[in-house]
Amino acid sequence: MTMQPLLEARGLQKLFPITKGIFRRRVVAEVRAVDGVDFDIMPRETLAVVGESGCGKSTMARLAMRLIEPSAGTLRFEGEDITHAEKGDMRRLRRDMQIVFQDPYASLNPRMTVAEIIAEPMVVHGVGDGPSQRERVKELLRRVDLAPYHGQRYPHEFSGGQRQRIGVARALALSPKLIVCDEPVSALDVSIQAQIVNLLQDLQQEMGLSYLFISHGLAVVKHVADRVAVMYLGQIVEIGPKAAIYGNPRHPYTQALLAAAPQPDPSRRGQRHELAGDVPSPMNPPPGCRFHTRCPFVQERCRAEMPMLREMAGGQQAACHFAETIPVYAPALTMRAPSAKLKARLALYKERHVAAKSDAAATA
Amino acid sequence: AQQQQPGQLTVLRTIDADNYDPIRSTATAAAEIVYLLADTLVSVDFDMQTVQPLLAESWEVSDDGLTYTFKLRQDVKFCSGRAMTAEDVVFSFERWLSPESSSPTKFRAGNVAEIRAINDHTVEYRLNEPYSDLLFQLALSFASVVDRESVEELGENFGVQGFGGTGPYCWNSWTPRQEVVLDKNPHYTWGPPIYENGTPQVERMVWRVIPEANTMMAAVQTGQADMTYYMAPFAIESLRAIPTLTVQQQDNYLYDNFVGFKTDKPVMNDPAMRRAINQAVNRDALAQAAFFGLGTALHSLLNPKVIDYDPATAELTPAYDPDAAIATLEEAGWELGSDGVRVKDGQRAEFLLYGIRNTQNPVMMEGMQADLRRIGVEMEIQLWDGTAAWGRLATQEFDAFVLSYPYVTATEALSLYFRSTQMPTPNRMNWNNEETDRLIDEARQATDDETRKAAIGAAQRQLVEADVWMPIVSQPMILVSGQRVEGARPHGIYGAGIYKGLDISLTD
Amino acid sequence: MTVPVLEIAGLTTIFRTSMGDVRAVDGVDLAVERGRTLCIVGESGCGKSILSLSVMGLVPTPGRIAQGEIFFEGRNIAGLSPADMRTIRGNQIAMIFQEPMTSLNPVHTVGFQIVEAIRAHQRVSSKAARALALESLKKVRIPSPERRLDEYPHQLSGGMRQRVMIAMALSCEPTLLIADEPTTALDVTIQAQILNLLRDLQAETGMAIVLITHDLGVVAEIADDVAVMYAGKVVERGSVGDIFDDPQHPYTLGLMGSMPRIDEETDRLVAIDGMVPPPFRLPQGCRFNPRCPFADDVCRSEQPQLTALDEGHLVACHKAPLELYA
Amino acid sequence: MLRHTIQRLLIAIPVLFGVLLVGFLLMQVVPTDPAIVRAGPTATQDIVEQIRRQLGLDQPLWYQFGLYVWRLAQGDLGVSLINNVPVTRELAATIGPTVELMFASLFWSIPLGILLGTVGAYYRGTILDRAIMAVSVAGVSIPVFFLGLVLIWLFGFHWQLLPFTGRGGPLWSWEGIRAIILPAITLGGVFVGPVARMTRTSVLDVLGADHVRTARAKGLSERVVVLRHALRNAMVPVVTLIGLQIGFLLGGAVVTETVFSWPGIGRLAVGAILSSDMPMAQGTIIILSLGFILINLTVDVLYALLDPRVRST
Amino acid sequence: MSDVTTTTGAVPAAAPIMVEDTFVRASVWRVLTSDVGAVIALVIVGLLVFAAAFAPWIAPSDPYSSDLVNMLKAPGEVGLLGTDAQGRDMITRLLFGLRTTLLMSLASVVLGCGIGAVVGFAAAYYPRLSGLLMRLMDVLLSFPAILFGLAIAAIFGPGLIAVVIALSVATIPLMARVVRGAALVVMHQEYVEGARSIGMSDRRLILKYLLPNCLSQIFVFVSLRFGQVILLGSALSFIGLGAQPPTAELGTMASDGRAYLFFAPHVSALPSLLIFIVVLALNVLGDALRDALDPKLRK
Ligand SMILES: Nc1ncnc2c1ncn2[C@@H]1O[C@H](COP(=O)(O)OP(=O)(O)OP(=O)(O)O)[C@@H](O)[C@H]1O
Ligand SMILES: Nc1ncnc2c1ncn2[C@@H]1O[C@H](COP(=O)(O)OP(=O)(O)OP(=O)(O)O)[C@@H](O)[C@H]1O
Ligand SMILES: [Mg+2]
Ligand SMILES: [Mg+2]
């Protein structure tokens, strides 16, 4: 495979200094928000990142967008080193990368109309003239299942799901190659969540987008991702194809995460084995393997030596000294399939749903 | 209401002095206290004309007017109990005159040749040239006799942290801007003959500063204080109606308000303009507005009650006549502009006036401003706080100024303000006129009353004709005293309302 | 049959606003028995929290209970005086909230807040109360509980705070615990810890739990009975098995379909179209009808009643069971 | 906690230095010549010149400032240009009465403001709330001197109940207390409003907070909920406001001190600046700014007391 | 803790109003107009501004023509509201005084808030500048406004200019804090990051994102500050720094007229009353605005 990655990160690191003093110049500590991560995103691919709160997912998203300067490491976009790209070059690159945020309530400027918001990237980059921009806004609104007249309204007049659509429309305005989605569905209700996930998937198929999809919902990630990276305390502990990560996780943290995820299956109740303790502070992460304070398989070596990502048999890479030897985790095996009644009814629902939709389209 | 402490007299005033060293302060607020703390060789009677003995029992003046010999009383003691001698008098004068003290009032002592003690109780005061005002000047607080020991002990802090003098009261304490506390001088028996009593009657005097007019009025009315002569004029009438209060006016008070013109600045250098202003301003109205009928409008350069006042100046001073003022201006070529302000040779008839912000000046100046607007002259007013004003008034930034001053003789007044040697201050008019200088010097050096009167009279007439000033009003001195107070009588030399205050006693 | 710990009948809670009356909870019937867990699911704004606050007698100001009865151990507590309610609240009925970050008072120590809860209902010395507080902290398995007593909430992690909340709620050994989305704000690993803890505590004390959530995963994990709410109404009620294996209401079905599952691969999620109607512009007829693919004219005009299909499985749908109308 | 305090103190140092410099420069650009001030009204030019040399006013600016700071470091604030009294002595004499007045004003106005604000917030939207807010808003809308004079007229003059001409004695004496009542009401009167309003907003905020709901859910009585859980948490912004408003209070203090002839530092400062008495003016500026900084330092420490989250940073 | 904890407080001066996207122009107006007090205040402010703006045409006489014969006449005796110490008609003086006072406070508020806003935005937007700028603001803040006024007056001479400068300077640090606090909240909103991510220039970001979203807080602060400035101005007048004669200005009129408080109370009381009304109306308006803008307080 010699395909060139769209985005390539090597040893990416971000330290947030904690400053003190009269003019806040003295650095007293550092938050190691992202601490040396490597990943690639291929064209048309979705790389999902999962991890607990505070593990550095959003920081990684911001780094990938070059919204913040990395403390170390390199970042390449289509082979071009953009780690220290100048303002002008960056501006050009911005057309190819866009971001969708978690909070639909905070991610749209409340003082601009929806049309203005969606047109803004085009205005900033001088793409097209007024009429053509207006045309494009309408097209984009339609694309995210909103009506053109919605463009005249302000964000507060929309529900969370609709706002998230507006955010997606804005991200699409310049026809980017990569969209970074920082927990795009976490704040939404389940029913709305599904709408957005479907929309994102449709768009990817139509426009050949790549996603860096950040989430803490393992189920959602499984649904959308091609490859999955699992983060813990600023580091990627395991990364690889979805099937390998979910089917044969090699890092104890990945395993624990999967085990802890609640399943809509009452029969599995009580089988979850829980991970003890809390995530340590990223200000002074534990030495050696960062997971060793909570790891059920911890050994002496883990406390002293930091494991590196290693190639595994399943095609993924895991950062655990004992990745090969720890017990196999096989949740899918113990999982009961949905009941026949449920399956049948869901199929019925789907059918009706599609029919109702085409009805509506026909009458419109 | 408030019970006063027995034997303690509380006097209210609106301002405090910068210090109470006789030779360092020119403030009237200092003089009124220094008069109580220390004595001068001679005193001035309530008529403001007669010089009376005080520390000096008697004095002789040589025929050439150059040598004054003072015979001192023998019973005088400082607060410390030490007897006062001629040496102390000489020391006090020398301190006043020494260049190190750089006293702002030094000039008042005349052109001194030598002052020496002939014996313990005789002082000889020799001048280089005659000085007809000398005795009056020596009655001012600046010429007070102070205790050498106290001066040496306190140094810079003399009159700040303590005071040694022979006055009817002794220094107790001073809290700046707040109060001065004075205690009766137990030795004091040598009061001037203008009083019935030679000794102080009150155990303790507290001079308290109350800057707010209303507060002061309420305080006097409610008996929280005993007396004041700083009462705002508007309050006097209603206070008169209160039976428990005694309101007395000193008719011989010499404290005049005037507006001076910088005679070398554009607009102001036109005598016609100055004359027109003198004609246009209704002084009676200003006096009425500012002093509620208590002040006397001045229709002459100096107060008619002052020694050597020249009655002819009253005739020469223009009367209030706006039409005449307009005529004067028209004649001089000041044409009415489209905006109502006159113009001559491209010069607008406008000028800037500086003054101190007190209760009367805003009223008077706004009145004057309105009067001038009617004849097409624009006066801009800028009033400054008392202390900052002096600095401002020393500059050349302004065209006219309003001030008031206390004085004792005509010669004193004119030589203070109009001699060319007094430029730029206090001769802020920049009045540089040889004739004036000559006349004033002649009056100063006159050895007989006639010559002096003639010379200073001529000077007064000359100045009136040139309209260097616009006299406004002679301020009233009104002493308000409460129920407990007896024997109070307003005096008013250099603004000191109760002077030695010897006859004042408390009923309780 | 034993008397349910809590039985709600026809509970209606109304908010009077400038836009009109909002029936946040509209004629809800529920019951939960000793030692059992009732989960209430539903999307944001469907009235779950208001329902629980109604039980607590803590409906925020413009709101009030307009109708219905709340029987707690057989006694109607809906019309109780504030003082009487206080003796029950925190004592026999305890509640924990969604946001462990903000639900504890940041300016008081953890110990103080637990002690306060104890002493509000028990006449014990502060020393004894402190011992009890320590006891309850131990019960919720907080590491080094002695130290925690004197710590402030901000010094604890989210999971620990939620444990403190639980400890506080359990300190008076309530017969009913209401938990309003106790795990939503927590990470998955912590969420599992808390759910396990609740289950263990219930086994120990036999208290009844009403747990509110919108995560069907959580429901599957802990519920005995489930009530699905939509727009202020209960649309389906049943045992956890009924709901997961035999969902009858189209809304419940939609929820199931919207959830991506780890165990099954689907290309496309079954989404429910549209959105929850605003509370003051509820549709005519069945409240779900604008979003329901099965809706017909009856649904658009007539409100369905909650009716029993099986023993203990109730649904409010004109079309139940769906197969018949397909 | 201690570190917190020390850190705040360190931050205050450059601020104080800035105040010093600004004050010094301001006094420099004042066109009034201090030598003339010193010389007095009728002095002649050569005397003024002589005094100028004496005062070192012919030296370059930086030198004067350096000298000033050097002396200041040794606790020497110079002597008044006008009456030659050491500035420190004057400051020492006036600071007490001002602190007394401030204390007496805050002593009643802050608790009252907090009480009114809390009551208003608790009974939000009722007539009581509206009345309280009306009074508070009215309180911040009256010119201080007007209030003072009206009080004098009523209590001092008309009913003759209370003295109003200066300090009656130390605060612990009967006379002292009587004399401070009217000035304290005047000055405190303008403070009740802001405190009440801030408290109301703040308590209202907290009353809606999750932890108050928790407190209620515990079955606590309303009194405990409001006092222990709402008010305590609401105090932080109120304390901030008080710290910031001290500056305003000082403006009021100048006026109050004048109206009631109170021997405070406000009047001293005004007099000193108006008369270009530079050392004295500088001294008062330093003391007043120091007071302001100190109060805000106290506020910071109070935060730490009120809010443990601040403590640990 | 971030830089917010400075010497003078951990919380921005005014209680931070959450910038909520539920802000609705129309609804703010509706909330505002549904409050009887606010409507009355609005009407009063409108009337007063109108009266001030058209003073030269409304006033029954010349504000500067003194009539020393008819001085200190009680209301009704001469003219409807009597005359002042110069015998000038009080109505005229009040109208012109209002005009000056409003202009003076407007100038100070505009100047002070303008500069303060620039400083506040700069401090929020450029964290490197923040320490220095905020320390500078601390210096200004700890410099009592009244002393500043005095010093300025000593430089430029007492008068409106000095008052305006002093009041502006006193306003700057407060405004800077309010704006910085508000801007920091906005800065942390995701939409600002979103704007950055499309490569927007700083200028456009500040003007189109920061400024509009801080406006509501600025607005509330300004309306409340306006009243404070009028009162501070009257305190400055009291110590003799106000407008110079014959300019009519309410604070100066009230403080000059206080000399006659016991005899002709109207000379001081009427301007005081007018100040009271103006400030009261502005405060009520500011409070109502705060309530209207604060989603938490909105019903
Ligand atoms: N600007 C910043 N300054 C200091 N620390 C920061 C900053 N931004 C993030 N951090 C810290 O870096 C760490 C990682 O933060 P990040 O927001 O990337 O986590 P996350 O995985 O996105 O968490 P969440 O799931 O809660 O969104 C956290 O500990 C956070 O406190
Ligand atoms: N103070 C209030 N005034 C008016 N309506 C209110 C108020 N509080 C709640 N409501 C209404 O009550 C309804 C139910 O709210 P509730 O908080 O119970 O929802 P929820 O199911 O708990 O949602 P979430 O999952 O978001 O917590 C909402 O639609 C809301 O509009
Ligand atoms: Mg994040
Ligand atoms: Mg809820």
TrEMBL record, chain C:
It is a peripheral membrane protein. The keyword ATP-binding applies. It is found in: Cell inner membrane. Residues 9-256 form the ABC transporter domain. It holds the Pfam family oligo_HPY. It comes from the Bacteria. Keywords: ATP-binding, Cell membrane, Membrane, Nucleotide-binding, Transport. GO terms for molecular function: ATP binding; ATP hydrolysis activity. One of its GO terms (biological process) is peptide transport. The keyword ATP-binding applies. InterPro entries: AAA+_ATPase (IPR003593), ABC_Ni/Peptide_Import (IPR050388), ABC_transporter-like_ATP-bd (IPR003439), ABC_transporter-like_CS (IPR017871), Oligopep_ABC_C (IPR013563), P-loop_NTPase (IPR027417). One of its GO terms (cellular component) is plasma membrane. Belongs to the ABC transporter superfamily. This is ATP-binding cassette domain-containing protein. It comes from Aurantimonas aggregata. The lineage of its organism: Bacteria, Pseudomonadati, Pseudomonadota, Alphaproteobacteria, Hyphomicrobiales.
TrEMBL record, chain D:
One of its GO terms (cellular component) is plasma membrane. The keyword Transmembrane applies. It is a multi-pass membrane protein. Gene3D superfamilies: MetI-like (1.10.3720.10). Residues 95-303 form the ABC transmembrane type-1 domain. The chain crosses the membrane at residues 9-30, 101-123, 135-156, 176-196, 238-265, 285-306. Keywords: Cell membrane, Membrane, Transmembrane, Transmembrane helix, Transport. One of its GO terms (molecular function) is dipeptide transmembrane transporter activity. InterPro entries: BPD_transp_1_N, MetI-like, MetI-like_sf. It is found in: Cell membrane. The keyword Amino-acid biosynthesis does not apply. Pfam families: BPD_transp_1, BPD_transp_1_N. Its main location: membrane. Belongs to the binding-protein-dependent transport system permease family. This is ABC transporter permease subunit.
TrEMBL record, chain E:
One of its GO terms (biological process) is peptide transport. The keyword Transport applies. InterPro entries: BP-dependent_transpt_permease, MetI-like, MetI-like_sf, OppC_N. It comes from the Bacteria. Residues 98-286 form the ABC transmembrane type-1 domain. It is found in: Cell membrane. The keyword Transferase does not apply. GO terms for cellular component: plasma membrane. Keywords: Cell membrane, Membrane, Peptide transport, Protein transport, Transmembrane, Transmembrane helix, Transport. It is a multi-pass membrane protein. The chain crosses the membrane at residues 36-59, 102-126, 218-243, 263-289. Belongs to the binding-protein-dependent transport system permease family. This is ABC transporter permease subunit.
